[in-house]
């Protein structure tokens, strides 16, 4: 256990909405949500005024409007959020090089090595919030603790726009009264299972014998939960993140039965996935797809390739063949609600090739040329002719965002 609360968790408040309000100051103080105003759209972010009505992220817009008829919807523009995120992360790194981004709007910071430069951890938290506010106009909440787990819990309880420090010596005093649902790794099903055994608080969980806990939630989860419930979390702030998979998925405004349209969206998803692979200088051994029919039945299919790849054409052709295995071309296609493409079993680019003949060589040259144009002129600088046109079919704004 650290002697000082030198691990910070910084979480931007209603990030997407806060960014939008910079351009729409007349909406400040009103219930606002970032979401597309379509039948199947979901809320990406909600202001705290909207949250008072029960509006939450990932909630269907139709339900959000029922809860809050006066809700103001603003169309999310993810490029603005990415620009703001990069600026925020740059500010974080001015205080410490040990920054671990968790998503576009939150990060862990280890400031133990910055105390002589900037003062105590709480002083650093105050300076950091002030810098973010002054340079971006955006509010942030900060939790400080001796472990990552407690710092994240503290930031959630500091919201909105606040700071909460949990001195390491008072970790259990803060942690144990919390409801069991506050624990990482405790979803709805696990919470029900624990409560059925009269485990309602973190203190109850900490006191539960490990053998008993294993019978309730299994071996791996039991040990992790038991450690966290007793305030033990040895994880450090990691400045590099190893991707386990990369992919994108899209939800349609209406169920799609047009095979040509599905193939176009597979190409779009494959393009975005392969671009991210190349940007990270990695390749995928396995390509997978996800299909959700109009009945909400969801299927996945995957294929391990002879050689790892990051070419758009190879990813797309594999994804299309996998889709055809679920929906043969000689049969009427079931209506599709959602489709996704994912690259898995990632390796460093060039590390998995042992063959003398590279079937992707020509496509690699094409991708290289496209990437050069993309780097100079942005994501829309050059694209396949098949991908030109509107995107009214895609309604879930989160499906248009590059993770991380």
Automatic annotation (TrEMBL):
<keyword id="KW-0234">DNA repair</keyword>
<dbReference type="Pfam" id="PF00817">
    <property type="entry name" value="IMS"/>
</dbReference>
<dbReference type="GO" id="GO:0006261">
    <property type="term" value="P:DNA-templated DNA replication"/>
</dbReference>
<keyword id="KW-0479">Metal-binding</keyword>
<dbReference type="InterPro" id="IPR050116">
    <property type="entry name" value="DNA_polymerase-Y"/>
</dbReference>
<feature type="domain" description="UmuC">
    <location>
        <begin position="7"/>
        <end position="187"/>
    </location>
</feature>
<keyword id="KW-0548">Nucleotidyltransferase</keyword>
<comment type="subunit">
    <text>Monomer.</text>
</comment>
<dbReference type="InterPro" id="IPR001126">
    <property type="entry name" value="UmuC"/>
</dbReference>
<dbReference type="GO" id="GO:0006281">
    <property type="term" value="P:DNA repair"/>
</dbReference>
<dbReference type="GO" id="GO:0003887">
    <property type="term" value="F:DNA-directed DNA polymerase activity"/>
</dbReference>
<keyword id="KW-0239">DNA-directed DNA polymerase</keyword>
<feature type="site" description="Substrate discrimination">
    <location>
        <position position="16"/>
    </location>
</feature>
<feature type="active site">
    <location>
        <position position="106"/>
    </location>
</feature>
<dbReference type="GO" id="GO:0009432">
    <property type="term" value="P:SOS response"/>
</dbReference>
<dbReference type="GO" id="GO:0000287">
    <property type="term" value="F:magnesium ion binding"/>
</dbReference>
<dbReference type="InterPro" id="IPR017961">
    <property type="entry name" value="DNA_pol_Y-fam_little_finger"/>
</dbReference>
<dbReference type="InterPro" id="IPR036775">
    <property type="entry name" value="DNA_pol_Y-fam_lit_finger_sf"/>
</dbReference>
<keyword id="KW-0227">DNA damage</keyword>
<comment type="function">
    <text>Poorly processive, error-prone DNA polymerase involved in untargeted mutagenesis. Copies undamaged DNA at stalled replication forks, which arise in vivo from mismatched or misaligned primer ends. These misaligned primers can be extended by PolIV. Exhibits no 3'-5' exonuclease (proofreading) activity. May be involved in translesional synthesis, in conjunction with the beta clamp from PolIII.</text>
</comment>
<keyword id="KW-0460">Magnesium</keyword>
<keyword id="KW-0963">Cytoplasm</keyword>
<comment type="similarity">
    <text>Belongs to the DNA polymerase type-Y family.</text>
</comment>
<dbReference type="GO" id="GO:0003684">
    <property type="term" value="F:damaged DNA binding"/>
</dbReference>
<feature type="binding site">
    <location>
        <position position="11"/>
    </location>
    <ligand>
        <name>Mg(2+)</name>
    </ligand>
</feature>
<keyword id="KW-0808">Transferase</keyword>
<dbReference type="InterPro" id="IPR043128">
    <property type="entry name" value="Rev_trsase/Diguanyl_cyclase"/>
</dbReference>
<dbReference type="GO" id="GO:0005829">
    <property type="term" value="C:cytosol"/>
</dbReference>
<keyword id="KW-0238">DNA-binding</keyword>
<dbReference type="InterPro" id="IPR022880">
    <property type="entry name" value="DNApol_IV"/>
</dbReference>
<keyword id="KW-0235">DNA replication</keyword>
<dbReference type="Pfam" id="PF11799">
    <property type="entry name" value="IMS_C"/>
</dbReference>
<keyword id="KW-0515">Mutator protein</keyword>
<protein>
    <recommendedName>
        <fullName>DNA polymerase IV</fullName>
        <ecNumber>2.7.7.7</ecNumber>
    </recommendedName>
</protein>
<dbReference type="InterPro" id="IPR043502">
    <property type="entry name" value="DNA/RNA_pol_sf"/>
</dbReference>
<feature type="binding site">
    <location>
        <position position="105"/>
    </location>
    <ligand>
        <name>Mg(2+)</name>
    </ligand>
</feature>
<dbReference type="GO" id="GO:0042276">
    <property type="term" value="P:error-prone translesion synthesis"/>
</dbReference>
């Amino acid at each position: 256990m650290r002697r000082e609360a030198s691990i910070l968790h910084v979480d931007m408040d209603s990030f997407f909405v806060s960014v939008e309000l910079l351009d729409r100051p007349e909406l400040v103080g009103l219930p606002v949500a970032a979401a597309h105003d379509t039948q199947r759209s979901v809320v990406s972010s909600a202001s705290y005024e909207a949250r008072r009505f029960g509006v939450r992220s990932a909630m269907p817009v139709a339900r959000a409007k029922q809860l809050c008829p006066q809700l103001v919807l603003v169309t999310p523009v993810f490029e603005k959020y990415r620009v703001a995120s990069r600026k925020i992360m740059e500010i974080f790194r001015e205080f410490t090089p040990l920054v671990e981004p968790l998503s576009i709007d939150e990060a862990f910071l280890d400031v133990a090595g910055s105390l002589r430069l900037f003062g105590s951890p709480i002083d650093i938290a105050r300076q950091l919030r002030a810098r973010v506010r002054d340079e971006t106009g955006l509010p942030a909440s900060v939790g400080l603790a001796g472990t990552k787990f407690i710092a994240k819990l503290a930031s959630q309880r500091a919201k909105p726009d606040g700071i909460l420090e949990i001195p390491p010596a008072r970790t259990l005093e803060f942690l144990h009264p919390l409801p069991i649902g506050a624990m990482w790794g405790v979803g709805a099903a696990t919470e029900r299972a624990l409560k059925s055994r009269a485990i309602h608080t973190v203190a109850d969980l900490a006191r539960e014998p490990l053998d008993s806990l294993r019978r309730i939630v299994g071996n791996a989860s039991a040990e992790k939960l038991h450690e966290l419930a007793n305030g033990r979390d040895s994880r450090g702030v990691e400045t590099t993140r190893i991707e386990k998979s990369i992919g994108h998925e899209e939800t349609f405004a209406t169920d799609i039965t047009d095979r040509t349209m599905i193939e176009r969206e597979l190409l779009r998803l494959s393009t975005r996935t392969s671009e991210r692979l190349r940007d990270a200088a990695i390749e995928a051994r396995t390509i997978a797809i996800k299909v959700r029919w109009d009945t909400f039945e969801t299927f996945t299919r995957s294929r391990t390739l002879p050689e790892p790849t990051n070419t758009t054409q190879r990813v797309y052709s594999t994804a299309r063949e996998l889709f055809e295995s679920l929906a043969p071309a000689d049969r009427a296609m079931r209506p599709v609600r959602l489709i996704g493409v994912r690259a898995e079993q990632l390796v460093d680019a060039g590390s998995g090739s042992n063959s003398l003949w590279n079937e992707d060589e020509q496509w690699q040259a094409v991708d290289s040329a496209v990437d050069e144009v993309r780097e100079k002129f942005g994501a829309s600088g050059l694209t396949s002719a098949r991908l030109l046109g509107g995107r009214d079919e895609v309604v879930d704004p989160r499906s248009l965002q590059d993770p991380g």
